[in-house]
Amino acid sequence: MTEELDKLEQGLGYRFRDRALLAQALTHRSAAPANNERLEFLGDGILNFVVAAELYRRKPDLPEGDLSRLRASMVNQSSLARLARQLELGAFLKLGTGELKSGGHRRESILSDGLEAVFGAVYLDSDFETTRRIIVACYGERLDDLPDVDELKDPKTRLQEYLQSGRLPLPSYQVLDVTGKAHNQTFSVECTIEGVSGATIGEARSRRQAEQRAADAMLTRLRRGATEAETAGD
Fold first, then answer.
1. Could you give the CA distance from residue 19 to residue 21 in angstroms, rounded to a whole number?
2. CB 158 within 8 A of CB 150
3. Residues near 221 by Cβ (< 8 Å), separated by ≥ 6?
4. How far is CA 205 from the centre of its chain?
5. Which position among 116, 125, 190, 216 bears the catalytic label?
6. In three state form, how does the secondary structure of 193-227 look?
7. Which of 10, 59, 173, 231 is most buried (most C-beta within 10 Å)?
8. CATH number of the domain that residue 81 is part of
9. Domain C-terminal end among 97, 116, 147
10. Going residue by residue through the chain (234 aa), what tens digit of pLDDT does each one get?
11. Number of structural domains in the chain
12. Global pTM value
């Protein structure tokens, strides 16, 4: 196990003085009473502050709402799980029998929680500046090449803003059909706009996601139509 932890420490760019902290950070609650939940709590707070401070420094002109949206995109479960996979963190996690059988070492929630716990362990083993450096290094180019804030807005928000900019009516969404059993349903949702011909349909495992897909399809159609109209005018 010592050699395996050496590999993880090498990926982090940090060598623990107290290996017991790292071992606890890698222990899921399904494996032992002395698990990583408290370290995860600590690491989550540190991570949010570090990312917020970096965004504040790197994006001096962005308002609070846009900074919050950017931070949320970087510290959400999927983003953290992606960073954890880069470190091959799943291979080092200590899981209970049930989680092992169900592939818990690949589950996003377990990976993201484990990475936050590791950040918490680094802080207790060293200091804030060391932890900040490691977090920034883990994010790497993602902090250097931040996405456009508009790209982070969900399709329903982008469609609404597009319509408002053109003083068009807001869209309405209607569930057309729900199929499948209660635990495995598929929703079909229609998006329509008063005065705009045609409707778009989105399908997904939840009503909300189906609405988002219908909105995305409608926004694509409207933008394509506007582009074609401009080309014809030229």
1. 5
2. yes
3. 198, 200
4. 19
5. 116
6. CCCCCCCEEEEECCHHHHHHHHHHHHHHHHHHHHH
7. 173
8. 1.10.1520.10
9. 147
10. 566 789 999 999 999 999 999 999 999 999 999 999 999 999 999 999 999 999 999 999 999 988 998 999 899 998 999 999 999 999 999 999 988 888 888 899 999 999 999 999 999 999 999 999 999 999 998 898 888 877 778 899 889 989 999 999 999 999 999 999 888 899 999 999 998 989 999 999 999 999 999 999 999 999 888 777 666 665
11. 2
12. 0.70
Position 188: which residue type?
Answer: S
Is 44 one of the catalytic residues? yes
Q: How far is CA 129 from CA 62, 110, 123, 155, in A?
A: 25, 26, 9, 38
| Co-location of 190 and 75 in the same domain | no
- Of the candidates 44, 99, 125, 211, the residue annotated as catalytic is 44
Residue 54 annotated as catalytic: no
> What is the span of the domain harbouring residue 129?
2-147
